[in-house]
Amino acid sequence: MTIVDTLTTIVFFTMIAGFTELFVVGMEPVAVLKTRVIMIPMMIVTGRPYGAWRDLVFKKAKPATALSKSVADGVAFLSFQLPVYAATLWIAGASGREILALLATTSLLMLLVSRPFGLVLDTVRKCAGVSAT
Questions:
Q1: Considering the domain boundaries, does residue 91 fall inside one?
Q2: Residue 133 lies in a domain
Q3: Which positions carry the signal peptide feature in this UniProt record (predicted)?
Q4: Spatial separation of the C-alpha atoms in residues 120 and 13, rounded to whole Å
C-alpha cells in the first residue's frame, strides 16, 4: 500500500503541477524540472500518510453518492494538505500574511484536484490488488 500510494502521489502531482507550472504560470522547462525534483522528497514523505488519512475520512463518513464522495475527498485533502503546505511555506520563510493568502487561494485548486486524485488513487490501488486499510 505504501509504494502504491506514494508512487501514485508522485506521478499524479508531478504531472498536474508540472503542467500548471509550464503552461499556466509559464515557467521555463528547466525550472519546472528542478521544482518537480525538489518536491519528490515531500511527496515520498506524505504519499502514504495522506492515503491512510483519506481512508480514515472515508471510513468515518461512509459516503455513498458521487457528491458525498467528492465532499469526502475534498475534506480529506484540505484537512491534510493545507497544514502540510502551511508548514512548507513557513519553513521557506513566508510571512503569516503570505501564508494565509496562499492557503486561501490554494484551497480552491486543492478542492478541484482532490476528487480526481482520489479516483486515480482508487484505480491504481485496484489495479495493484490493494485496498484501503
A1: yes
A2: no
A3: none
A4: 11
Mean pLDDT over 96-100 rounds to: 90
Answer for the pair 39, 13: CB distance below 8 angstroms, yes or no: yes
**pTM of the full structure:** 0.87
14: nearest Cα among 31, 48, 39: 39
Residues 6 or more apart whose CB falls under 8 angstroms from that of 106 comprise 82, 85
Angstrom distance (rounded) from CA 76 to CA 78: 6
Q: What is the pLDDT of residues 16-59, one digit of tens each?
A: 988 888 888 888 999 889 988 988 999 999 999 999 999 999 99
Structural domain tally of the chain? 1
Range of the domain at 80: 2-128
Rounded-to-integer distance, Cα 6 and Cα 48, Å = 6
Quick one: pLDDT at residue 3? 96
